[in-house]
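Before surveying the methods themselves, let us examine one representative protein, pairing a chain with its fold in token form.
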Amino acid sequence: MTVTLDQPLTLPCGATLKNRLAKSAMSETLGTPGNRVTPRLPRLYRTWARGGTGLLITGNVMVDQRAIGEPCNVVVEDRRDLPRLRDWARAGKETGAAIWVQINHPGKQAPAALNRRSVSPSALPFEDPGLKRFFHTPEALSEEQIRDIVRRFGETAAIMKEAGFDGVQIHGAHGYLVSQFLSPRHNRREDAYGGSAENRRRFVLEVYDEMRARVGDDFPVSIKLNSADFQKGGFDEDESSAVVEALAARGIDLIEISGGTYEAPRMAGAGVRESTRRREAYFLEYAERVRQRVDVPLMVTGGFRSRDGMARALAEGATDLIGLARPLAVDPAWSARLLAGEDVTSPVAPIRTGIRAVDNAAMMEVSWYTLQLARIARGKAPLENAGGLSSLLKIAGTLGWRRLRMGRLRA
């Protein structure tokens, strides 16, 4: 039977998603300077829920106040924000959508402007000079610290279930801590968490096991995982496939496939072959190979722009869910149009400032779309034609002010 966009999907844990369209995580930075939940988050997710998307995955929720990836990340270490979290969960569940929380730790990808220190599997700074100056050289985690972070992932997952969210996602991609443990480029440890590929995936398996133990067998637990990090000496597709198999054997409910890091931003389309662009999804070929090895539901994110491209990927069996991010930032109701059968193509295109160094940086695109999310969260329409350079200057000023306020709060 041919799978279509409007068909529901039942996950291994028994939960059912109402259709095959999923909002992938995007950087929101809509918390307070002290990393608390704000009313803007429920407003944003209510808009997406009413727009027809079946699964909404939040942006980064961090597990440790001492490890922030971006200004105004939400941090959930305890239950102090439980009423606000419940509001957020209720908003995302409107019209029968499911809302999952992406749970993360940045590791050494924690900007020096926001953090007194950073940690990583090994005490290795970024090699890229453009990135290196914005981040501390990390401290290598002790085994006791690793156990504490594993516990934190489980605690945050349990709180999110209590708050009424429908599932959780481990962020295991894009160069954050889980990704750092998996990569031989960043993980040079010689203990049980480093060396062999089996040892390097120990951390993510312990995180999964802890989260599953805290939320139970009938609550969705998923992961966003790199197909590869596209760096010399880094995490490759063979190792990624082995991680997929290990997680599938443990009973994970969904694997979202992405790729790249902020050093090699394939998730934003950088360096993607023209043959891949014609199929739209950046990581579809990898998903097809993984499909031969596991039965776990797959979600492919990155590059989908047309209804035909999505329908073809589902019909061919390469993916079970279509991951959408930037298209839903410029049209929050785009899913409803797709489900209604409209032959629509997203207007999403690369953002350009005319400054080569800026245009080649992944954070440029992130900043432009962050501004669109902020507008939706204020009840306004996205500015589809906003200029790249003006958006960059605006976001730089906004984030600069937020960093100043966060610094004062941490003083």
